[in-house]
Amino acid sequence: MFRIPTSWHLLLLGIALCFTWQDGGAQTASWQWRELTPPSGVAPEVRRTGAAIYDPVGKRVIIFGGTGNNGTLNDTWAFDLAAQMWTKLPTTGATPAPRLGFDAVYDSIGHQMVIYAGQAAGFFNDTWTLNLTTLEWRDVSPPNVARPKARYGHSAVFDPVTRSLVQFAGFTQEARRFQDTQSFSLATNTWQDWTPSGVKPDVRCLLTAALDRTHRRMLIYGGQRSGFLDDLWAFDLASRTWENLTVSPRPSGRLFASSFVDRDGRFIVFGGSSSSGNLNELQAFNFATRQWTQLNVANPPSKRNGALTAYIEGENRFIVFGGSGDNGLLNDVWELRSATALASVSAASYVGTMTAPESIVSSFGTNLATATMAAPATPLPLQLVGTSITIRDSNNIEHRAPLFYVSPTQVNYLVPKECAQGMATITVTNGDGATAAGAITIAGVAPGLFSATADGKGYAAAYAVRVRNGVQVEESIVRWDATLNRFVAVPLDVSNANESVYLVLFGTGWRNRSSRGAVAVRVGAVAYPVDFAGAQPEFVGLDQINVLLPSNLAGRGNVELVVTVDGQETNGVRVAFQ
Length: 578
What we know:
Helices cover 2% and strands 48% of the residues. The protein is mainly beta.
């Protein structure tokens, strides 16, 4: 095998490590589950039917209360999303009584968590705020005669226009189930009955609700009356009227579910308990088409009801903590995150969706890295500026991919040797935790040729070796023309019958070929056997082919060259002959 000339090291280093591609295509969003449970350290005890909010200032999820294995709780915890670590908050002031089956909202003006009602030994109708700066709890309940009736199992949203907690329905021993709509103003600490006189949802409890900020409305779904409910309603927070959005077909009825409205405007429901047991599915209602769709997202949390959840609007991110599973109460942490679609191709050819173990891949998307950086040395790192890549192969085994280069729109990496053949999922996670995901097929071979312009087109990234009387002379077949600002051909002379001229090609994806005889180089219409086809030892993931060029190619001018490996063809590149 011929060595790489010193003059070619810099060019090949650029091709193998930092090749870039300007991709103008729009990217679409998908969803991805990821577990965030800390492997060690303090953590809240298992629980269900507490409440959670997202604190955008501290970038943390705050949870309070619920019911555990030893009864109802009134502890307050914060989960740092960046550090993925729990902290028990040292709150001050009188603490709300332990409770379950209540709801909580976040008031951005007061930078506070607001909770209302719930149940323990009895039922509550009190309202409390937790100042997230001072960590002081305050009872802001008006006199009892000026409050709604005590209850649990209601649902609430925060109306940013009126700065109000708006709640619907619930259950109490005093009046059974409700169908009222009540509003608590955080500006005046007073309640107003917003129940319309016209159409409204039936009485219920244990429902789920979410804010549709775009249309300023509260969405409610499901719950329990005499059985499991499966209807969907919208409460217009401006006109204070209800609209029935129930359609057929629709998901089965459920209670103790969670919900949010995503960045695309869909109402999404997670988990809950149905007549068939606990659920961990995601059901999405599209308001434009008025249709329900089940979202098939891989590796979800276990089935559960009564989870404590919070939606992070700015990141299109949904956090799930605990709940009641099939085998008891839980305290694990999961996130459902919007993942940018990832387009992956051979880093050599820039075509196809197939790769091979130990080959180089380029993937394209948005927000893939917080900065641009190339690997400084070998062995290649598994992380660059916080970006890492995981490949889940067809055996459902995850592998970390070594990185050549990362940027906000492109990552170049090596497919680990251990990856099984078949469909694989590529997940890119940047330093801020944002993800992009896509699929690629891993095969035994997936050959691609590098070109001098590093886009899989134009003149080959190759050089020639001229051998005469045992002396080897290396020759370039392309050069950079500064005037034209592009690569131009250096035509190759193969006319001397007393010389042997070898063409040395570079690419990726063919080192696992079945045999050397299964590799051929087609120049024009004629295929030629190769002297060598395998790994290039000086650069990770780079493969090399040496082929003896016949003299009858003299005078052919620009000719397209294609390599065939185990029946698979590469992209075509050009070589010029004089």
